[in-house]
Amino acid sequence: MIGTDARVLSRVVPAATLAITMLGLSITGGRVSVTYAQATPRQRASSTALPDTFGFGRPATPDAIAKLDIDVMPDGTGLPPGSGTVADGAQTWGRFCRGCHGPEGEGGSAAPLVGHDPSGRPLTVGNHWPYATTLYDYINRAMPRTAPGTLTPDQVYGLAAWILAKNEIIADDAVMNAETLPAVVMPALGRFVPDDRRGGPEVR
Questions:
Q1: At 25, is the secondary structure helix, strand, or coil?
Q2: Distance CA 137, CA 156 (A)
Q3: 53 in a structural domain
Q4: Does residue 159 belong to any structural domain of this protein?
């Protein structure tokens, strides 16, 4: 027969009672029932209230917004003043781009940009880029990888001209600017269709 030390029992029972009280439990007839505490409207309101500020960041000034509002659309909307030639682009390519994309755009540690295999292998600007204008957009906002957004409009126009010429899409003496770049028809344009889905059964 196993005995029970009264001193141990005296410590266990109050602890169990405390746990039952904290958990909202009650024992009736050997059964345990659970009582959930309901928050008052005031408690609910105070728990969802948010501060006016969170103590970090800075106001979005018009100048700060303008620096980020650099989207260039397929029709050329958003292209800035400036221009660049294929020769200009060759110089910028040698300085900022060839280390990752290769001397002739054939690829290296970064993807190839030059190549017009119609099978689309590998994917390049020459066989898988629908709009010349969005080439400007991507270079402007994302390149060079180590310092994106630091190229001037003339440098970006020149790079676009160099890449397009390397892919035999424009002539070697072409000048790219806000008027001529939207006029370039990309070989891969026909590979893309407008996404006019509106949801529901029309989703294809």
A1: strand
A2: 9
A3: no
A4: yes
- pLDDT for 102 equals 97
Find out whether 151 and 144 touch, Cβ atoms under 8 Å: yes
Query: Please, which residues bridge with residue 83 across strands?
Result: 177
Query: From the centroid of its chain, how far is CA 52?
Result: 27
Cβ(162)–Cβ(93) below 8 Å: yes
Residues 119 and 39: their CA atoms lie apart, in Å, by 64
- CATH number, domain containing residue 166: 1.10.760.10
Looking at residue 81, what is its pLDDT?
Answer: 98
- Amino acid residing at 128: H
Structure tokens at 188: 């891969």
Number of domains within the chain: 1
d(CA 184, CA 161): 10
Q: pLDDT per residue over 29-61, tens digit each?
A: 445 454 545 656 565 555 678 888 888 888 899
